[in-house]
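Consider the following assembly input.
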Amino acid sequence: MDYVLPNHPDYRHLFVTKDKDGEDIHFLLTSPKTPEDMLRRRECYTVGMRTGGGVLVHCMGADALAAFSVAAQVMDSKLRTGYTERVEQYRRHLQKNDLALTGAITDVKGDRSLHPSQQKQHKDFYLRIVERQKDGIVVRGAKAHISASPCANELLCLPCRTHGEADRDYALGFAVPVNAPGVKLLGVEPNVRLYDEECEFDYPASHHMQPSESLIIFDNVFVPWERVFMCGEWQFSQILAYAFASYHRLFGTCKMTETLEAMTGAASLIAEYNGVQNVPHVRKKLAWMAYITETVQMLGKQACLDPMTEFGMDVMMPNRVAINASKFTYASNIHQMVQHMQDIGGGLTTTVPCYRDWKNPEIQPYIDKYLAAKDGVKTEDRIRILRLIKDLTGNHWEVDTIHGEGSMAAQEMFLYGSADWKKFQAAAKRASGIGGWQDNPVYGHLLLRDELVKMPPVDTSYKSILPPAKKQ
Amino acid sequence: MDYVLPNHPDYRHLFVTKDKDGEDIHFLLTSPKTPEDMLRRRECYTVGMRTGGGVLVHCMGADALAAFSVAAQVMDSKLRTGYTERVEQYRRHLQKNDLALTGAITDVKGDRSLHPSQQKQHKDFYLRIVERQKDGIVVRGAKAHISASPCANELLCLPCRTHGEADRDYALGFAVPVNAPGVKLLGVEPNVRLYDEECEFDYPASHHMQPSESLIIFDNVFVPWERVFMCGEWQFSQILAYAFASYHRLFGTCKMTETLEAMTGAASLIAEYNGVQNVPHVRKKLAWMAYITETVQMLGKQACLDPMTEFGMDVMMPNRVAINASKFTYASNIHQMVQHMQDIGGGLTTTVPCYRDWKNPEIQPYIDKYLAAKDGVKTEDRIRILRLIKDLTGNHWEVDTIHGEGSMAAQEMFLYGSADWKKFQAAAKRASGIGGWQDNPVYGHLLLRDELVKMPPVDTSYKSILPPAKKQ
Amino acid sequence: MDYVLPNHPDYRHLFVTKDKDGEDIHFLLTSPKTPEDMLRRRECYTVGMRTGGGVLVHCMGADALAAFSVAAQVMDSKLRTGYTERVEQYRRHLQKNDLALTGAITDVKGDRSLHPSQQKQHKDFYLRIVERQKDGIVVRGAKAHISASPCANELLCLPCRTHGEADRDYALGFAVPVNAPGVKLLGVEPNVRLYDEECEFDYPASHHMQPSESLIIFDNVFVPWERVFMCGEWQFSQILAYAFASYHRLFGTCKMTETLEAMTGAASLIAEYNGVQNVPHVRKKLAWMAYITETVQMLGKQACLDPMTEFGMDVMMPNRVAINASKFTYASNIHQMVQHMQDIGGGLTTTVPCYRDWKNPEIQPYIDKYLAAKDGVKTEDRIRILRLIKDLTGNHWEVDTIHGEGSMAAQEMFLYGSADWKKFQAAAKRASGIGGWQDNPVYGHLLLRDELVKMPPVDTSYKSILPPAKKQ
Amino acid sequence: MDYVLPNHPDYRHLFVTKDKDGEDIHFLLTSPKTPEDMLRRRECYTVGMRTGGGVLVHCMGADALAAFSVAAQVMDSKLRTGYTERVEQYRRHLQKNDLALTGAITDVKGDRSLHPSQQKQHKDFYLRIVERQKDGIVVRGAKAHISASPCANELLCLPCRTHGEADRDYALGFAVPVNAPGVKLLGVEPNVRLYDEECEFDYPASHHMQPSESLIIFDNVFVPWERVFMCGEWQFSQILAYAFASYHRLFGTCKMTETLEAMTGAASLIAEYNGVQNVPHVRKKLAWMAYITETVQMLGKQACLDPMTEFGMDVMMPNRVAINASKFTYASNIHQMVQHMQDIGGGLTTTVPCYRDWKNPEIQPYIDKYLAAKDGVKTEDRIRILRLIKDLTGNHWEVDTIHGEGSMAAQEMFLYGSADWKKFQAAAKRASGIGGWQDNPVYGHLLLRDELVKMPPVDTSYKSILPPAKKQ
């Protein structure tokens, strides 16, 4: 679909822009410089996801590309490396050839309590440089559950964690074509083992996502220097990982906006079909679902309206507090959304008849009669909504929501790390009469309490507080 | 399995008892009269579920049978009907022939905002009497997602709601063989479309549950009078439904004890395999999972230790507050259990390789190398635990947990209805100095505050509370 | 303070604007017409609250005034009444004399299950018209817990609920001076019975709020026609109440921003003072507190950036979804904020020594020695933060948070009422293959799935999904 | 009150037992040996708390005494110390003189990130031995917020944490009279600064608790050897602390049973008075409150019915899983209880008139008229319930609930530490086909799946699953 929308007259203006040669290129392959760019990026993602789950080959990869640009600038300025030029060169290559790309971040990790170089069985649990050659490097390792990889032309690889000096060979960023020698994709089993029309009926949301994730093996893959964007600069792994995370969470909020809209809508439709839309506890649950859905969407918008530049660079990144707040909102609430859908929909959200039953002419009349609900609603429509709920409440969606674009613990770490603690502490110090708030930009310049008009003495104004009682 | 355990030397003493003829009969087909009977019933259920999900053909049906006994006694005493004798007759039939039975409760319901006789499209959304004949009655309707129905010999049918007089034809309790003319079972699609060894590997929990639920059509089924246990006594629908609910929730807590134990254990194993078992937030989550698991189990036990008789009958029923508290604990927390398992297990809880990948000799070496985690743990063991988690966090388990044995709203209604409000209000009245608590059995006989020794006057004892401050 | 900030050189530009005569007037007494006006209104509130809880005599009243303007325009256009002119007249009176005003909304309500005119003991549980005279009306009733009333010059009264025709005498909007004959203020007891320096030390947040709320009795109060802004137009009670609610929730989010900032800061300071700032569960809690605080603030900002006009009027109102989402976020989470503060702060959050202990020279050395914590932090600073936490976690703040600016149930009703259900349902219908989404402005114009490029047939691409297993 | 109940004819049988000399002694001063003893202990606590908050001088102290007995036996058997005899000697002293006692556990702690001997400003942040003399020891330090200390005769001191060898001087257990030289009590400020009848009306729950907690300074206090029960045995601090914790949590659950009953009752009464008792969301909240209240009570009972002996001793202790589950249930839910009470009660839960207003004859008629609610309920009764709610939702109760008898983190640690992980892991291993469950006492002896009857092959039984669809 990534190639359909940019070529469609209604969406061309959104997805296509010009490079400096005046040639048409994909907007998502450009680097965002202004709030308007951020909003447009968000609009591309949102339109793609609402259309039906597209942009997958210009999302994770485009986010990785944007992160390479940020990290390259920082490394060049600190270490006089020449990464920026390489990244731009590569960006032009992608733009001119309009390639599909994805980002490969998550290493398989082995024992999480050990650093990459401390792992016991072997040292390849994190992707690493095994040899530096004249023309390039050789890498080995594996990246787990990488979305869109079967459809991509290019893989952009970067670290999923910060590194210490001992792990310098794991500080590694590069790009290779998916069909480079030594790259092996082990596709994940489909969400459901059904295909074609049957799958579309039974699992309408999973249907167009098969296949998607794969485990990618890098079995001594050669990468030429011009595609190497980090090579041992372990102090900068963090910047690369964080920049990617911020961009990719923006994509995440757009993806979830569509999913949450469908969930909230499905719950409201099944409530109506079942005849329970006016039951108070159902309305309360629906109100809550709408609240979460719109909060995710609004915080994502806020992240674009108020973006940040970091590390002295000119590239715009989503506001870190806002984008992590948006992501955390959906990750921490998705199971409650699922519970509400299942609660409102009833037992049929798991025992709803399937395509083979419904299409069976002997059985259909019974289903049609007995699984009807509100008069005027077709039984088939009710079944379709129940199938959608059954699909959306499956294991895949829950796990993807809490772990996609980073785990919940990662969100909490980001929220902790990006909160303005000085502002909060200044508020508390000022409120409790402790010094140290005076130089805070938000609280420091406010009027002192002494400058305010005092209230008159209290007790004279309210008779009821006065004596009668003998205060001992 | 229901027939294996009673015939196994280790379990015969638990499952087999004698009837008054001195013949061996299944214990679950007897009526509980003492706390010891309740505890034994619980033990049967628990052993069966821990063994692997059995007792299914002696659980819902046995609970329905117990409920028929309760309702029959009440109706006989109020209306001089002769149901008790019929139920006992039927009970003996089941005992002597050691038949497998299930209970069919949930009607398909149509538009939930309308009573049975108000439904628009047709009047069969709730199972009903369509004709009273000399030898028996003819019934029509459908019951949805009835567990164990494909394996049962007998179906015990009862109402799922209370009825008004206008709906007297829906106040209906009876039993028929599953193969009675006009009974049609439409099986629910299996949780997963895999079978045999592949299914056992990929979906170890769902595997032995296929097939289970079905939609049962009663297409003008004839029921002879000796199997009719309620026929139009609409005022007593509630008793029948409530008695069944109390018994069946006891089964539910036993079923969930095993499921929750497996969930909590799976989370703790994957934490260990991943090397995160000492991470504080992981331990906190595991502690919470153990807390929920044991609370469900202990409240279930409490329901048997402190059972109740109602309606002046001699049959023991589980304590209503305890059994509903147990059920509500798991129903309201299951999604959080799921979230914790997925959170601790990581993204592989959905993208874990499947049987066909693992058994593929070309692929296995890669998986074995890269999906290893903690040294000393076999990769296959890690994959098996992840498959278990993937299976247990699927849609079926969530829905079954919140809707099986009654919805969450039903629990709340029961908790509200069975709480001792007089005791609570007496506590508040006494505490706030309002009259009306004196006749409460718990709070009424306690000493009055005036009978207690008064504290000495306060201010003399603490210097620090005294003057310095100029109280204005 | 409301009169200090506008007269302070640093803040004059924010709080003071010109009327059409070119005279200086208070900005909060003007009607917002643009997003910029909304943002400025928000800035006034935020600066006032961060400074120390001011704007109280230009918040609820100013919000009521804005609501009068909206309702007057609607009534005039529908009923050809002349309310708009009266409201403007009154607005000019307030502007020219720079009066302090408050809004009186909440009736005492009596039995909540009965409409105003159905109340049993008397008919005055909701403020009502008892007589229509030539020059004006006479009103009777009472308004409960009205903030800032002791400091205000003017009271703006409006209904707190929608009305049916039978309750037309309760559909009533007007303004009177606080000292009008028959108006009686019964002040609420102060949060704490301490004053002056002792209060400032012991209850630093409550200190400058005493006295605040009062129960206002209207004992046959005469209101001249030129101050009557609704008189029996029962169909429009809802508009008046809703318009007020939207404006006032904007104030609420600004008020809570300061409170939440102080809470979050206090928790982070006491964590540091106690030496637990690096304990993982503490950081997780702090991250969550920052997340809630900033989400409230960002959603409030969003409500101004994307305001709405309703009823065809030119006055801007805060975006209803955003402002209610912001309010609901703090109302539903405040008790968790409190729990986290108390959890992190420890038992001393209630047993912290008070002013009289600390200032007692015999006791201070012991306290100073034993209640010290982290080296380098003054014991007094620790005590002050603990006093702030003790104060902020008291009953008043919790109740004010959940009930101030409308109860949680009211939020849920608003969230339900203002959600874009058509959008959500269109998402679900499109996703599940049901018709009816095609005319939705968000989902309707998107490309059809058929227009997208199809995935290639699945099975050929993944060896691992292919046979080995004997699919039966 | 502790001396009233044992001397009251109705309660003498419960509180008074005989020692081996045949003399009457207080039952709570004996050591529990059987489940019946545990249930009686629980009954004493529950009756005391429901009567009005008594047993305070036989609860924490009695729990400390019981813990001394446990630790003494263990130390004597391991180290051949003679503590058991000393403890029994002291127990007889208490019994014969019927003394009031309390336990002093919580040290002031200083910087929580440092061990006792690492503290910076001084070494007295944890109570410690400063000198070992011929006749006894000299101790220095302070214990924070110790309940009931102003009313007690004796103080039983024990450590609040486990110790390493470097902190051996902090491993310290002993008893002293409250009036021993060097012991100083700094009383905590009362919950409210009101006394006598006014306090009883305004703060009915806090009233009879003033004064209660104090900060106890041990300023070089001499303790004779016969009252020293641990002196440097750092390896056994944990046993002493844990034994105390288990006993004291039993008291905690009895205390909370009464508090929760009053809270739930107050919520249900104010719902009725306000006329909202049939509003669905109110009933849902009330059902939840009853559920929590009874769950706490039932789990506490379970802890007595299924007690444990540990360390090879004959003394019974509450079941550790059950008692911590009970405590965790109330600690983690108390803020939600508070929210529900405030939500149902409305804004008046903070702005309810106080005694001075109500007793003021000029004001009372207005209050009586306007704050009436449901017809037939006295306004004063409504005010009293609102005052109770205002009191119970204050800061003190929340903090006491989450920190009293140990913090939430301590509960989680206990729950983690006492859970039967082997059982849970056996369940998961068995379910997923991993070895290692065979030797588990719960899961190990169950039948193997192979011993069960297999289901028939699947596909033949359900037409609907069969072909029509052209499987890929």
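The longest strand of chain D covers residues 136-146. Ask yourself how this observation constrains the way the partners meet.
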